[in-house]
Amino acid sequence: MKKIIFISVIFVISIASCKKSFLDEKPIDFLSADNAFVTYNDFNASIYNLYDLVRKEFYNGGERRPFDYIYGTDLVYDGQPSVDRHTNMAATYAPTGGLDIPLYHWKALYKIVSEANTVISRIGASQMNEDQKVLTEARARFFRAIAYRTLVYLYGGVPITLEELKKPKTDYTRATKQQVLNQVIEDLSYATQHLPKITDVQDGEISDLVAWHLLSEVYLAAKEFRKAVDAASIVINNPNVHLMQNRFGSKANSTPGDVYFDLFQQGNQNRKSGNMEGLWVIQFETDVLGGAMLSSSTSGSYMEERNFAPQFLNLRIPGQGAVSPILYPRSDLSGGRGIGWAITDTYFSDTIWQSDFNNDIRNANHNFVRDFVATNPASPLFGQTISTRNPPPGVKVPNRYLYAFQSKVTTPGDHPSNLFADQSNLLLKASAGATYADQYMFRLAETYLLRAEGYLGLDNRDSAAIDINVVRSRAHASPVTGAKVDIDYILDERMRELGVEEKRRLTLMRLGKWYERVKKCNPYYSDALPLYNLWPIPAAEIERNKDAKLEQNPGY
Amino acid sequence: MKQRFSKALLVSILISSLWSLQGRSFAQAPDKNQPVSEALKQITKAFGTQFVYDPVLLKSKTTGYNMNKLKNEKLEDVLKSVLYPNGLVFLYVKSNYYTIVSRQQVSGVAAQKLSGSLQPVQASERQGYSLSGKVVNENGVALGQVSVRIQGTSAGVRTKEDGRFSIESPTKQAALLFTYIGYETQTVNVKDEVFITIKMTPRADSMEDVVVVGYGTQRKSDVTGSVASANLKDFENAPNTNVIQMLQGTVPGLNIGQVTSAGSTPSMNIRGANTISGNSNVLIILDGIQFNGSLESINPDDIASIDVLKDASATAVYGAQAANGVLLVTTRKGKSGQPRFSLSSSYSTQTPTVSLRPMRREAYLDHVRQLYYDQAYLAPDYTKPNPDFDLASKLDATMKDADGNIVPLDFDWWGEATNPGYINDNQLSVSGGSQKVSYLFSGGYTNQSGFIINDKFKRKSLRINLDMQATDWWKIGVQAFGSFVDKDGAEPKLSSIIEQSPLINPYDDEGNVKPYPFNTNYSSPFLTYDVDDYERHNYYFANLYSDLNVPFIKGLNYRINYGNNYRINQHYAASIYGAGLSGSASKTHESYYDYTFDNILTYTRTFGRHSLNTTLLYGASERKYDQTEAEATGFSRLTLGYNSLEQGINQYTSSDAWREALSYQMARVNYKYADRYLLTATLRRDGFSGFAANHKYGTFPSVALAWVLTKESFFKADWVDFLKLRTGYGVSGNQTSRYSSLSRISSGASYIFGDGGSTLFGQQVESLPNPDLNWEKTEGLSVGVDFRLLGDRLSGTVDYYNNNTKNLLFSVQIPNITGFSEINSNVGELQNRGIEISLSSVNVNHKDFRWTSSASFSQNSNKILRLTGADSDGDGREDDLVSSGLFIGHPISTKFDYLTDGIYQVGEKIPSGYYLGTYRVVDANNDGAITLDDRRIIGSQDPAYRVSLLNKFEYKGFTLTIFLNSIQGGKNGYLGANSPSIIRDDNHIRYNYLDGIDYWTPSNPDGKYPQSIVAPTISPTVYYDRSFIRLQDVSLSYRFTGGWVKRLNLQNFNVYVSGKNLATWTKWEGWDPETNQGLTINGRPVMKGVAAGINLTF
Questions:
Q1: Angle of helix A40-55 relative to helix A130-155, nearest 10 degrees?
Q2: pLDDT tens-place string over residues B926-946
Q3: Which residues, including other chains, have CB under 8 Å from residue B157's CB and lie 6 or more apart?
């Protein structure tokens, strides 16, 4: 028995002698919040991710969701009706069901808020110097502001959260719209003071002017028109930015062409190319990690071409053979490999251009393509022009296979070589469809139009007209008089200048004019209702927030 | 004790002396003028002795012995002279007291004198005949509570503590049946007034009665917890490539799913779901070592036994990982003796159990026509065809010729992508050994080809099991295997095969695959098939043990298990179609290693009627995983494929790794008193690196009691051979997964500034930390009965259990406002209650024909008892987690959804957001709108019960087994989602679908599934009952027994045919009810197979 006790004791001792650190948990292929926010580099990594999150939300988060900012507005209608393209709005904008589109954006925007909050909350305990701390905070607050600004336009007053969350919270309540706007203004004001000058940042980085531009827009939303004008003026008056007046960049010598055309050609958006108009350019690079675009597929890239260009594949002209007269997909002004999901409505393609149809360069055929060359030798129409203005008999325009579209959605001749099935004929592979160019988030032309809106709010229509005319004169369009300027005129001008470049939904919802404009300009969406001026609070979110009530928007 | 022994000695001397006389001749010619009975009366007078005998025995027996000599003779000599010539012998009972029996009676059994006061009685006075004797074990020790029955009657008794019994028989001669758990049943023919001694021999196939219980083995009769041994024998001929498939439906409470691809491991759970979103894997212990690899690596032929630990009192020895039950897999060992060669080979077909196929040409064209019913048919009824409708105008250009006419093609994509599959399995093993060493070498080769082309599985496996008695007190050994799995080749994606149009040829005029058959960016399924794909999984396992009987301390044993698992996964692929036809290639390399180091100290002693077994365990384990992937895209030449990734324009790499460690201690006491009172108590402590900082260790106790009633002297029911009651309570755990309590930050390439800029790496917080995250704790109470009745004709086990799991690991949904959609948390409490019954019976047991059955039944009800504990809505009742689909008082698999009431028909008033042909969603709360508030609890996905029946018929060399398995849903149970729907968008027009789905159209108003022009606001999922009965296994084998088998020195030679999944009876529509795949293009068929094989042992 003694021996048993002895052996048991040895055994117990051997157990006790086990090293304590044996069970420590050290992740080896990811960081944890405890060691990821120490140096300036750590914080920059979070900031770069915020750039990526913004890019995903507005540009490359799939082939559908970024375009929720354009579908269901006064610009386009559906080539292929579906909830994805906002057809059957009752389903698209339902608090639940459909594709839960309101939930998708809610989630993405609050993720931006949350990442920004984490950065801001962690600054204090970091090893950064004072300058780095201030700069980092300015950047993070800018991103938080753009997320809340988008949220407040889309959903109205939303819950405000400003701190890094360390444990779950399920009792949020909605702030008022004004409270959210005030928060955005506060963050942006900080950003305008502490972000670097536009000359001191790399291409694609946010600068003080980017913050001023956005602040101007948010002041408009807050109906603080004077401040909106002042903010825009700071951008406009900055000597380092101006509207481009002359041809420039990679296609400066190509014809047909003009400066408006040049603004959207590949490689022409960043300041490095000589472009002094772009304020904040969303960056894309092909086949480089972090560049988002691939030459092998559309995945990860901005699929503007795919959505907005017509699908000539299925164009058939009655009596003119069973083939499409236009070769497809082709890297030329026919629109690459568009699939005609977003058909330009006639208000956008015709109505707004009537006064200056032939002189406005933005309406030139190479910018707003209406006449297509029949490039298919197998077609009896080979070599002839097929025009949307005067369509061949039996073809109703617009339709998915033939409509006018803005050439800025595509990059004629500039698709990556990998995407060509037959480069000599500019024929593309089925994997084309992305837009291989950087994208303007904010462009100075828009700042002028924001200031015009500010002046209009101050009832200073003449000043508004002056600003609008700056934009118009660059486009060789005839000037507008102050008497003619109203909000609808500005919205029309934004259509002309920005078109599908703009996050149109935000503008319309900011102004509370979504319903009115859709009813006025886009008969296709016959089921639009005034209540859709705001999206619903996602029902799932109300359900998850179980310890307090998130009030639903009226009508849902 | 001593006295008894000396008596036994005396008896044996007596008997042997009797036998020694046998050889002698009795030359004396008997004077046949006096009956023996008369002679005995005279002897009684002369010597004053008494005799006991059966008068029948003496009937017509005479003796010529001269009674006048009596006075001069010794009694014994007289008796010899009178009795021996008549074939009778006499037995000494006590002084002047003898019994007389026939010599035949003593030839089979040992006869001895009866020390009791047996009185001579006259046959005429008796009601029956007394048969008596004593039962001993192989060592001569008396066995109490042995069941003694008279064959052919229900009469029976039990032996007393001293092994004695006495039984009344209505006839003088009777066959007595002796049964005792763990021993061979014996039948002995006896006659009245003979005292016999029966020696019981332990069962030869003792494997059946020893069960592995974790860190040791136990006799089945000593087990206190719910432990079941799987019946592998009756399923060995089934065409299964995975050992787990053999268990499907055979052990109540062990629930095994179906498989749909070659070599894959079915899903498995024990006694229902104890977790909502924690790890639900059953813990697998292979030869004592935790096995985390894929079961595909284990050669089913190497398995000797599989034991299942079901209740918490049994699983508690595995503590924090055991809440989902434990499967103990033991591989075969060599037995000492001549080398034994075993060969087997089989071939099985593989065809789908269902005939689902995509539509062919006419069906497809009609499908398009129906999608355009509003144009193809005339309003308002849409039943009369519209003569102006031009179907061709609706079809994709790819299905029309240059003139716009529909091509006349009817291509069979399904046929192109499938072929009859097969399984070919070959096994060879050699085993044997000497007294010191035993060995088993085995090799197996399995080649399975699934029904879908390139669904392939090849496994080579090699095993060596060695055991060596190094010294008298020290044994060492190894169990080692290597398994090499080859899954080369990539399948065409089945869903994509289904979606291809029969009006499109997958090949162009040159015979090359068309990359984009529809001219959209939807690529041909054959692109994924027509690739260079190399997929290997290599598994290595070795467990070295040392087993040491500590010298000088009797009963103390120290065992070390050192188990090592290593596996390498390689997946290499190259495709000229990859990366948008620019070519892609990749190499992925994964490695995994773990070791387990267990120190087990056991002390076993028997003190009188007490026996004690104590186990102490100290162990540790570490696991390491590494992964590296290299990928390149954009190849001008892909001649060298994945072996020359540097030729790709874009090159990407990624890597991954994790580590985890466990440390644990366990103490267990097994105590037994008089083989009838059993106690097991266990305490285990587990530490795991993946536990949150505040909870690094957990402690898991258990206690179980058992009582063998049939060993009690008061137990009189003689038809019961064995009856044991068990009850146990225990706590086991379910670990959190590693890193789940930490706030994880992912990093990766995020952005680039400027044209030609370089990559900037970003980071993002992926989860909220939870330093209080705790393991799940399952407390289980169980009660069970094990029994054998009627001489082992019926045996079985009944178990009832009630498991409560607390601290459920669950990702609670939180508002996205937080930046996260969920957090790993511990919530609430879950209950699993159920009953398991398994029964085995011998229905017919004749010499040439034997029919046995076993049935199993299990029922489990799962119920959420508590969740977060909050009552935010203030209704006085704890809130459900509606957004997570969890409801208090309901199973976790509850389906909460909208109700439907048919489909909107032509002419009906349809609310906005809904269309002709969409589901009529029920406005359950009558508020005039369909909102989330209209969802209701529809039912659950859990079965009501599972039941299976195995019948086995043996006739001479033939064995036929038939196994039926069934899962039943009862009312609103075992539901599966099955609501295919179609809306008219480009892809639904272009794509093909499964044939024969009952879609709604105006001309098919009773159609079951919705089809509409536009998608409705809400198209709810509709659930159907998946109940089924399956003829899962049938096997017919024949064992050759002729003289030639012996001449060829064959120990076993049998051939068989078997069938798997031959028939399924169900109302479920679609691929398979058990795999929960309905009419979806994403399903895969379950295979049925017919196999033929041969087993040879020499």
A1: 20
A2: 988 888 889 999 999 999 999
A3: B148, B149, B165, B166, B167, B718
**Residue B529 or residue B416, greater confidence:** B416
B607 close to A (CB below 8 A): no
**pLDDT for B638 beyond 60:** yes
User: Highest mean pLDDT: which of B101-115, B289-303, B445-459?
Assistant: B445-459
Residue B340 CB partners (closer than 8 Å, separation 6+): B430, B431, B432, B1051, B1097, B1098
CB-count exposure of residue B313 (10 Å: 0-12, 13-18, 19+): buried
Distance CA B1023, CA B1012 (A): 20
Most confident range (mean pLDDT) of A26-40, A431-445, B836-850 is A431-445
Question: Tokens for B333?
Answer: 């060992």
Look at residues B290, B317, B269, B321 and name the one whose alpha carbon lies nearest to residue B777.
Answer: B321
Mean pLDDT of chain A: 93
Q: Does B31 touch chain A (CB under 8 A)?
A: no
- Using the beta-carbon criterion (under 8 Å), do A167 and B768 form an inter-chain contact? yes
Q: Of the candidates B689, B750, B757, which has its C-beta nearest A285's C-beta?
A: B757
Provide the chain B residues 385-424 that lie in CB contact (below 8 A) with chain A: 397, 400-404
> Would you call A465 helix, strand, or coil by DSSP?
helix
**A-contacting residues in B 628-647 (Cβ below 8 Å):** 633-634
Residues of B in contact with A378 (CB under 8 A): 402
Of B553, B662, B912, the CB nearest to A4: B553
**What is the spatial distance between Cα A439 and Cα A435, in angstroms, rounded to a whole number?**
9
Counts for chain A of helices (H) and strands (E), in that order: 17, 13
Chain A: residue nearest B690 by CA?
Answer: A25
> Helices (H), strands (E): how many in chain B?
14, 54
For the ranges A484-488, B25-29, B203-207, the lowest mean pLDDT is seen at: B25-29
Q: Is the pLDDT of residue B118 over 60?
A: no
Q: From A97, which residue of chain B is nearest by alpha-carbon distance? A: B1018
Crossing angle of the two packed helices A461-474 and A444-457, in degrees rounded to 10: 160
Highest mean pLDDT among B350-364, B520-534, B780-794: B350-364
- ipTM comes to 0.93
Check A33 against B754: CB less than 8 A apart: no
Shortest Cα distance, chain A CAs vs residue B975, angstroms: 22
Within an 8 Å CB–CB cutoff, is residue A290 touching chain B? yes
- Inter-residue contact A328 to A312 (CB < 8 Å): yes
Tens-digit pLDDT profile for residues B954-1012 = 898 888 999 999 999 988 899 999 989 998 888 889 999 999 999 999 999 999 999 99
Name the CA radius of gyration of chain A, rounded. 27
- Least confident among A53-62, B31-40, B675-684: B31-40
Of A48, A158, A203, the CB nearest to B760: A48
* Residue B111: per-residue pLDDT: 38
Examine the pLDDT at B206 and tell me if it is beyond 70. Answer: no
Q: Are B703 and B687 in contact (CB under 8 A)?
A: no
Chain B contact for A419 (CB, 8 A cutoff): yes
Backbone angles phi, psi at B131, to 5 degrees: -110, 130
For the entire predicted model, the pTM comes to: 0.77
Mean pLDDT, residues B788-816 = 88
Using alpha carbons, list the distances in angstroms from residue B371 to A267, B548, B808, B991, B1002. Answer: 45, 77, 47, 12, 10
* B521, B742, B750 member nearest A290 (Cβ): B750
> Would the pLDDT of A257 be above 80?
yes
Query: Which residue pairs from B1037-1042 have beta carbons closer than 8 angstroms and sit at least 24 positions apart in sequence?
Result: B1037/B237, B1037/B958, B1037/B959, B1038/B957, B1038/B958, B1038/B959, B1039/B957, B1039/B958, B1039/B959, B1040/B957, B1041/B956, B1041/B957
Contact status of A234 with chain B (Cβ, < 8 Å): no
